[in-house]
Amino acid sequence: MNVMPTSRRRTLGRINVAKVTLAHGGGGKAMKDLIDDVFVSAFDNGLLAPMEDQARIDLAGLAQHGDRLAFTTDSFVVDPIFFPGGDIGKLAVCGTVNDLAVGGARPLYLSCAAIIEEGVELDVLRRISKSMAETARAAGVQIVTGDTKVVQKGACDKIFLTTTGVGVIRTDVHIGADRARPGDVVLVNGVLGDHGAAILGARGDMALDSPIESDCAPLNGLIEMLLTAAPNTRAIRDATRGGIATVLNEFAQTSQAAIEIDETKTPLRSEVKGFCEILGLDPLYLANEGKIVVIVPPEEADAAIRAMRAHAYGAGAAAIGFVRCGEPGRVTMKTVFGGVRIVDMLVGEQLPRIC
């Protein structure tokens, strides 16, 4: 891909105060120095360097990856902004990369818009931008444009991030929630509920000492391996807010099929099980930030599981259920006691501000 180089390397600004002030959102030198110090220095790349009002991308280079553009956006307001296994910056990059990858796209470019509360420490922002840059490099994407706003104290909670992603889908990849068929197998790439449990534990509201870490991870590499091994994969979704229960209901309703999962085959850490039992939560609705739900034709299920287990983020991959010919849009679960219960869409919320 051709990237027009800048004519010369400019000197980046630097901030010498400890906290963000409203002046850093005023559009002048203070704002330029904030953007340079916190974001440009961390995200440095050829498309960002010109500092135009937009990133300029060679279309011929994009077309080398496929024939369809994938485009997504997401906002992140997690509380706390640092948690075991990640932070709001890592979460923002992983969430957008994964939203592209589950559609079969190769993620390429991200934007980042930050709304920052007056009084936030600069070292906190630098830590977040460094985390974003490291995660983007690990995912093979570049953060190429963005925006920064500073609001009065109390107008937001420390920092809100909005990331937008662009990727390209290969000609031979066709994935959609409407493609599930009776007989298909339902897979996940590992233990569920870690992110939701980690966030609740990090808040300290329940005074529980939990060793659980978020599963936050970029899954594009895993999904690429999956699609190579199982090219007729029907559908993929990342199980974020609302957990796997919500994803399964979306698949069942869109495909007008029934889905049944088996509780004994649904992978959970013993710590997450105990956490949920203490707090009266259902782990099927807990958020994940490094887990996908996959529907594949039965003849490709074994290959799909082997491919995912060969990747670091899929070592715990398992088949947890099947698409059935039952009532369209219905999701059920065979329980450990031998009964069957309905797994409905989440009503309201189990946990606030988890992503």
Average of the residue pLDDT scores: 93
Number of domains: 2
CATH topology heading of the largest domain? Phosphoribosyl-aminoimidazole Synthetase, Chain A, domain 2
Q: Biggest sheet: strands, sense, closure?
A: 7 strands, mixed
CATH superfamily of the largest domain: PurM-like C-terminal domain
How are strands sequenced across the largest beta sheet?
A: 8-10-7-11-9-12-13
Shape: globular
Description of the structure:
The protein is α+β, with helices and mostly antiparallel strands. The chain has two domains: 22-169, 60s Ribosomal Protein L30, Chain: A; 185-342, Alpha-Beta Complex (Phosphoribosyl-aminoimidazole Synthetase, Chain A, domain 2), CATH 3.90.650.10. 29% of the residues lie in helices and 22% in strands. Strand 2 (82-83) and strand 3 (86-87) form a beta hairpin.
What are its keywords?
Phosphoribosyl-aminoimidazole Synthetase, Chain A, domain 2, four-stranded mixed β-sheet, globular, alpha+beta, 60s Ribosomal Protein L30, Chain: A
